[in-house]
């Protein structure tokens, strides 16, 4: 079935919007994780709440639960290192007990979780972040080359990678040229330079010279089977967006096991792949954002333009650096 651009948005920005009956209904099935100030910072499903409640206090620390309000106050140790240690001990306990399948994708990478003043509350193992439903951060870069207008519309061709068939998440699907998660303490620029080398063999000097930041794309996903592990986990994300114009003689090549191959495609070839549903869901959104900025997607040729643009930049409900954007 051919997918519309709005279909692609709906497949990624899944979590219902506030002040809707669907939002109220879904919240009634989740637990809201609170910071010490009472600020919501994440959503837990019932199975995750149950696992957290059963985890020994000596591992996780004290837990305050309101079943009426469906809220959880956890990881309230005095300092960030102590909170991070408690989170690490908790998810390691779950991993050693095979509590959640998603932890089979353990990455030994730490993601930051922020409080209401954008302070670092604690860090959490990347593969476990979705269990707590906290906002995670990443970078997505679209690399392109200029070509004559008669060779390709809009005068560009875009580098598109196919994910490895052995990847635990979304194997063999199409991706943005370069994409990756931001670790605790890493800046977006540092992250995109690292990922350009790791995933596309792009030299640092080429990236630094030509990369251009274009704000963020934000959405709230609910994990499904292709993401690997448990389904129904809430995953709010903020992606820092970059474009990179490459010379014709610079070729994107796989430099790790995550990418199978790269294609240099026209806008139309990418549009057809999007319609076929070949792109990883959040990569579809980043591609649509690129098309909006380049005038490929306009009010004149897309009846759902306003809704699409609004939902590419969703106001996430939890605190963090994305609130500055």
UniProtKB/TrEMBL annotation:
Alphabetized GO MF terms: 8-oxo-dGDP phosphatase activity
Record PROSITE patterns: NUDIX
SUPFAM superfamilies (alphabetical): Nudix
Domain Nudix hydrolase: 136-287
Gene3D superfamilies with a match to the protein in the record: Nucleoside Triphosphate Pyrophosphohydrolase
Lineage: superkingdom: Eukaryota
Transmembrane spans: none
Annotated protein name in UniProt: Nudix hydrolase domain-containing protein
């Amino acid at each position: 079935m051919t997918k519309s651009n709005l279909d692609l948005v709906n497949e990624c920005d899944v979590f219902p919007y506030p002040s809707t009956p669907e939002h109220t209904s879904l919240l009634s099935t989740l637990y809201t994780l609170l910071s010490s100030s009472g600020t919501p910072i994440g959503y837990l499903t019932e199975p995750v709440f149950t696992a957290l409640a059963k985890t020994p206090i000596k591992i996780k620390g004290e837990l305050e639960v309101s079943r009426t309000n469906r809220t959880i106050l956890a990881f309230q140790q005095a300092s960030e290192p102590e909170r991070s240690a408690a989170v690490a001990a908790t998810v390691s306990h779950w991993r050693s007990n095979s509590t959640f399948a998603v932890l089979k994708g353990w990455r030994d990478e730490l993601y930051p979780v922020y409080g209401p003043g954008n302070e670092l509350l604690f860090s959490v193992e990347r593969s476990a972040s979705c269990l707590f439903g906290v906002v995670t951060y990443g970078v997505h870069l679209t690399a392109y080359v200029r070509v004559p207008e008669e060779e390709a519309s809009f005068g560009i061709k875009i580098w598109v990678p196919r994910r490895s068939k052995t990847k635990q998440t979304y194997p063999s699907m199409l991706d943005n040229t370069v994409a990756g998660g931001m670790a605790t303490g890493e800046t977006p620029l540092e992250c995109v330079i690292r990922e350009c080398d790791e995933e596309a063999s792009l030299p640092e000097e080429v990236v630094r010279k030509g990369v251009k930041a274009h704000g963020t794309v934000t959405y709230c996903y609910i994990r499904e089977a292709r993401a690997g592990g448990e389904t129904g986990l809430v995953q709010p994300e903020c992606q820092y967006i970059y474009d990179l114009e490459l010379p014709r003689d610079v070729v994107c090549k796989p430099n790790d096991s995550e990418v199978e191959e790269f294609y240099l495609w026209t806008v139309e070839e990418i549009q057809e792949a999007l319609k076929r549903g070949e792109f990883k869901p959040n990569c579809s959104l980043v591609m649509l954002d690129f098309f909006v900025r380049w005038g490929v997607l306009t009010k004149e040729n897309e009846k759902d333009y306003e809704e699409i643009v609004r939902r590419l930049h969703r106001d996430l409900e939890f605190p963090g650096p994305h609130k500055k954007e």
